[in-house]
Design brief:
- Strand 4 and strand 5 form a beta hairpin.
- By secondary structure, the protein is of the alpha/beta class.
- The strands form 2 sheets. The protein has a 5-stranded mixed beta sheet.
- It has 2 domains: about 120 residues, 3-Layer(aba) Sandwich (Beta-carbonic Anhydrase, Chain A), CATH 3.40.1050; about 40 residues, no CATH class.
- Bound molecules: zinc ion (ZN).
- The site of zinc ion (ZN) has 7 residues, from loops.
- Zinc ion binds next to loops.
- Keywords: Lyase, Metal-binding, Zinc.
- Catalyzes the reversible hydration of carbon dioxide to form bicarbonate.
Length: about 190
């Protein structure tokens, strides 16, 4: 069963209540950006109190500072005026449960969805798979505080990121909804 019809139905209701949002400007009104994980339990609009037009939210698996996330952040400040950035990873992230090797082995086995059991991910597909997975760095997360620090460091040391932008490092706790600071990351990320 596809969710297509449910989504289109929900959108009709949203568009009906759209109000004056047609007048929003392109630059984020509150001039900040969040880089966070795509995890379905995280809703940055709710956990950070955002409305449409407020901020840029860049999401990928893990909320990692990949080349593409940095591309978005550079556009965010250079063309659209954001002045503060957050890197927010989270507890119980799926990116903690596999390695580059495991992921490429799962994909080499089949292109079907793997199963997550007590012993980790296991491929249950029929195959064939593909060996292309070994050419991608999946940016897995062995430890959240380290991954936040690594990503804030990567962003701050990028040649196209000005020293004046502070980058705050946080972990979202999926069991409480709270944001917990990673002080070493925020320290590396401070504006200079
Ligand atoms: Zn995650």
């Amino acid at each position: 069963m596809s969710v297509l019809n449910e989504i289109l139905e929900a959108n009709k209701g949203y568009a009906k209540e759209f109000g004056d949002k047609a007048n929003l400007a392109i630059p984020p009104a509150r001039r900040f950006a969040i880089l966070t994980c795509m995890d379905a339990r995280l809703d940055p609009a709710k956990y950070a109190g955002l409305s449409e037009g407020d901020a840029h939210v860049i999401r990928n698996a893990g909320g990692r500072a990949s080349d593409d996330a940095i591309r978005s952040l550079v556009i965010s400040y250079k063309l659209l005026g954001t002045k503060e950035w957050f890197v927010i990873h989270h507890t119980n992230c799926g990116m903690e449960f596999f390695s580059n090797d495991l992921m490429s082995n799962l994909l080499a086995s089949s292109l079907e969805t793997a199963e997550l059991g007590a012993a980790g991910f296991k491929d249950v597909g029929q195959g064939p798979g593909s060996n292309e997975g070994k050419y991608i760095n999946w940016l897995t997360i062995p430890d959240q505080a380290s991954s936040v620090l690594e990503d804030v460091t990567r962003i701050k040391s990028h040649a196209l990121v000005p020293a004046s932008i502070p980058v705050y490092g946080y972990i979202y706790d999926v069991s409480t909804g709270s944001l917990i600071e990673v002080p070493e990351a925020t320290k590396v990320g401070q504006a200079r």
